[in-house]
Amino acid sequence: MTTTEKRTDRPAERPRAAAAAARASIARRERSGRKVSQWLRGSAEARPTTLPAELT
Hints:
Structural class: mainly alpha
Helix content: 40-55%
Number of helices: 2
Oligomer: single chain
Mean pLDDT: 81
Shape: elongated
Radius of gyration: 15 Å
């Protein structure tokens, strides 16, 4: 594959990587006793989410 060819495997991997990162973040927050927001849990389930206004 050359650099001019379009890669088709990456866009499909982004949501899975984001969900994995969200699951790791949830686990870290739960271990430390912090509150886990619903939008973060939605990200972990690979649901499309919109961040709350205070986080944007």
